Recover the amino acids of this structure.
C-alpha cells in the first residue's frame, strides 16, 4: 500500500467518524419527550413532539402535542392521540 493510498484511507476514516458523531449528536433531539400534564410543556418548538400521559386518550393510545406551524404569536400546538408504542408482548 503506497503512501497516497494510506492518506486516502485515513481521510475516509475521519470523514466516517465525523459523520457518526454528527448523527449521534442529532439522535436525542429526534426522540419525543414525555410529560404527565400539558401544563408541563414550556417553549414548544417548531417540529418538536411531546407525549402527554394524562389519561385523556383511549386505552392503548397516548396524546402527542407537536409544534405544527409558526405564527406571529408563536408556535401553534396540534394535539392528537397516537398508538402507544411500548414493549411487545406475545
Amino acid at each position: 500500500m503506497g503512501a497516497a493510498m494510506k492518506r486516502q484511507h485515513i481521510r475516509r476514516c475521519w470523514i466516517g467518524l465525523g459523520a457518526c458523531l454528527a448523527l449521534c449528536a442529532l439522535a436525542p433531539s429526534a426522540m419525543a419527550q414525555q410529560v404527565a400534564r400539558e401544563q408541563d410543556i414550556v417553549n414548544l418548538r417548531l417540529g418538536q413532539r411531546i407525549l402527554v400521559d394524562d389519561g385523556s386518550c383511549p386505552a392503548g393510545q397516548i396524546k402527542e402535542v407537536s409544534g405544527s406551524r409558526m405564527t406571529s404569536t408563536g408556535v401553534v400546538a396540534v394535539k392528537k392521540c397516537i398508538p402507544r408504542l411500548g414493549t411487545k408482548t406475545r
